Amino acid sequence: MSRLFIFCCCLLVAGGNAFVNTRPNLQVKKSTTKSLNVIPEAFTDTPETARTYFYIWFFGGQGGATVALGQFPRQFSKFKSLFEMSEEGPTKAGETVGLSPLCLYPRDISKADVDQVLSNKLSVEQMVEKGPKPNYMSEKGYLCFESFADANKKCNPLTIRAVFDAMSTGDNVDPSIAQRKLDEFRSDPSAFKNSLQKQKLAGFSSIAFLLFLLGPIVAETCIEAASFGWFPEWPGGANLPWSLLVGPGFWTIPEYWI
Question: What pTM was estimated for this model as a whole?
Fold first, then answer.
């Protein structure tokens, strides 16, 4: 039973709660009428090759999940810094931009503050050349947030962050894209607000989409590879993952373990 317990823990780690049947099941018995093609035929010749496939997907999936989950502390840190910025620096106050709540900013920002940032006479190329270069991308000529903030040090900190976020989902942006965006913001007052919302939603949705893909696909592939690798004659193999819970149930797996 200890082997069964360890095996079930591995499956839970690999897939979390993502037991969603999004892919065809593995064909365990030739008599089934269901089309099952999760694992390539090259990995179904023997249980040993199926086990290799399980290890590849299990450890590969953990790496991908680590990358995706690692974004949450970074996003939280960034969100926390926005609240700190909201109380810092000078502001011209007055009429606000009308930011969407989806941007998750602690407060709206002043149009006058935005205009002050956009009125900077320095080109993006000059900002990159004169500003600090704290990371690899900035050393390669990308505009980083630190350089943009340094070029606008007399402006409101939260507004500086908002204008930069309207150009990029991270802390670096291609200088040609940054210059094009800034020119667009200057010529069209509504472009800044729309671009900020678009960039914020793109950043949030990319993380959510990656987690969604990792859950169902990695979990189901690992479960079915394990089924073929360690208990290929188990009668529930054609109906995974539901057969783990109802008929015949995971508790019957030891009877078919090889």
Answer: 0.58
Q: Are 86 and 247 in contact (CB under 8 A)?
A: no
Span 49-64, pLDDT tens digits: 877 877 777 776 666 6
Tell whether omega for the bond before 241 is within 30 degrees of 0, i.e. cis.
yes
Count of alpha carbons within 13 angstroms of residue 92, beta-carbon side: 14
Convert the pLDDT of each residue in 190-217 to its tens digit: 899 999 999 888 876 666 666 666 666 7
Residues 24/36, Cβ–Cβ less than 8 Å:
yes
**Partners of 172 in beta bridges:** 144
The 3-state secondary structure of 154-169 reads CCCHHHHHHHHHCCCC
Residue 21: CB atoms within 10 Å? 12
User: Closest Cα to residue 221, out of 79, 76, 14?
Assistant: 14
140: which 2 tokens? 């390669």
